[in-house]
Design brief:
Blueprint (H helix, E strand, L loop, with lengths): L2 H13 L4 H15 L7 H4 L2 H16 L14 H10 L2 E2 L12 H7 L8 E2 L2 E3 L5 E3 L6 E6 L2 E6 L2 E6 L8 E6 L3 E6 L5 E4 L3 E6 L7 E12 L17 E5 L2 E5 L3 E6 L6 E7 L2 E5 L2 E5 L4 E5 L2 E5 L4 H4 L6 E8 H12 L2 E4 L6 E7 L4 H9 L5 E5 L2 E5 L1
Parallel strand pairs: 2-9, 7-9, 12-13, 22-25
Antiparallel strand pairs: 1-23, 3-4, 3-8, 5-6, 6-7, 8-11, 9-10, 10-12, 11-12, 12-15, 13-14, 14-17, 15-16, 16-19, 17-18, 19-20, 21-23, 24-25
């Protein structure tokens, strides 16, 4: 096929007006180009950036989301790149004929119960059991915990020691589904909480170590400080994060922990510094760019972890990188506070980048462009069908 014919076919698939014969041709072309070893040829297929922009504009017109961030995965197979990017949100492999994209009027019925995206917010529980809903709290002093003042400032909570000895008491910050928040601990360490997560921590750090416990997902930037009574290497006070039998010990470093109960493993990903991960009698030192996965059978080390995808939640994105529908929908469930049910099993992998400030219906419309999945919103429940 010529480049013009490829572009026209891709545009018809994206627009939802392709015939069954054209959809079948699309599938055949995709399969044939998957096995091709040809490099990209501008004189045959056209300028790569030009084709990408054409496909982006087609997607924007189809979804109505002009600010959509689309990740085009330009693989080495020439025509496959055009055809896959035409669908925009890519499945790893095509396992059968495409189905026509649902009509706009049908989507309006299925998505009439839209859900707004999550936002900043959390619940702070003080040492005396008092709770503060941070969504509604004004900037300024929230509480006094011994010698430490608890302050809300510019969308975060800061623990500021006022000097003098401090009684060791604990606070807990929790983010419900559809919320995220960040705080600065008394030692200057910064913590970001993803949706459906929590951290329990002392309002002041004393002794030889700093210890906190978490649930869900949290990103840490740990301040390097010295212990007043001696501690780790050269008197440094180690920072320890606990989750059940797992502990992560650091000095000064940046790392992310995903410990949701409904995920297959606890994942500790290191961005900067050094980390020691321990579970029972097993332990592992990880380097920047590596991820430790803590499973029932021990600790598995993964090199070259996809940092952009892992940290997307903190940066305001969904970054679906070769992700199965179950993992994808768990992320949506936490952020939009919805229940997910499946009509049938779906064995597909997806690629996409979508801003987290997007309404749920628009996210689902985007995913439906693959032709491999279909959704319906009923109140706070999403039904997923192939």
């Amino acid at each position: 096929m010529t480049k013009d014919e490829i572009k026209k076919l891709a545009e018809r698939v994206v627009s939802g007006i392709a015939t069954n014969e054209e959809i079948h041709l699309y599938s055949q072309l995709y399969e044939s180009f998957q096995s091709s070893e040809n490099e990209w040829k501008d004189d045959v297929y056209g300028d790569r950036e030009e084709l990408e922009m054409i496909m982006r504009e087609a997607i924007w017109k189809r979804t109505g989301i002009e600010k959509l961030v689309i990740r085009m995965k330009w693989i080495r197979w020439a025509a496959a790149a055009v055809l896959i990017s035409a669908v925009s949100f890519l499945i790893l492999r095509d396992r059968g004929p495409k189905i026509p994209i649902a009509g706009q009027e049908t989507q309006q019925v299925r998505f009439k119960n839209d859900v707004a995206p999550g936002q900043e917010g959390a619940i702070l529980t003080l040492s005396n059991g008092k709770t503060i809903v941070l969504d509604n709290a004004n900037n300024g002093s929230l509480a006094q915990e011994g010698a430490t003042e608890v302050i809300k400032k510019d969308g975060q909570v800061v623990y500021a020691n006022q000097g003098g000895p401090s009684e060791v008491v604990y606070n807990t910050m929790s983010t419900p589904k559809g919320r995220l928040y960040n705080l600065v601990l008394a030692d200057g360490s910064k913590v970001w909480l993803n949706a459906a997560s929590s951290i329990t921590f002392p309002t002041a750090f004393t002794g030889k170590e700093r210890k906190v416990s978490i649930t869900g997902e949290a990103y840490f930037e740990i301040a390097h400080i010295s212990s007043p009574v001696g501690g780790g290497r050269e008197g440094a006070m180690p920072f320890i994060v606990q989750k059940g039998e797992m502990s992560v010990q650091v000095l000064g470093t940046h790392f992310n922990i995903n410990s949701y109960e409904d995920e297959e493993a606890i994942k500790v990903t290191l961005l900067e510094g050094s980390v020691k991960v321990t579970k029972g009698n097993a332990n592992s030192l990880i380097k920047p760019g590596q991820q430790a996965r803590l499973q029932d059978d021990g600790i598995k080390l993964v090199n070259d972890a996809n940092i952009n995808s892992i940290m997307a939640w903190k940066n305001g994105l969904f970054d679906f990188e070769r992700i199965d529908i179950g993992s994808l929908m768990r992320q949506l469930s936490r952020w939009y506070d919805v229940e997910v049910v499946y009509d049938k099993k779906i064995d597909e992998l997806f690629y996409a980048k979508i801003p987290r400030n997007t309404n749920l219906s628009d996210v689902l419309k985007i995913l439906e462009l693959t032709g491999k999945v279909r959704f319906e919103i009923n109140g706070k429940k999403i039904t997923v069908t192939p």
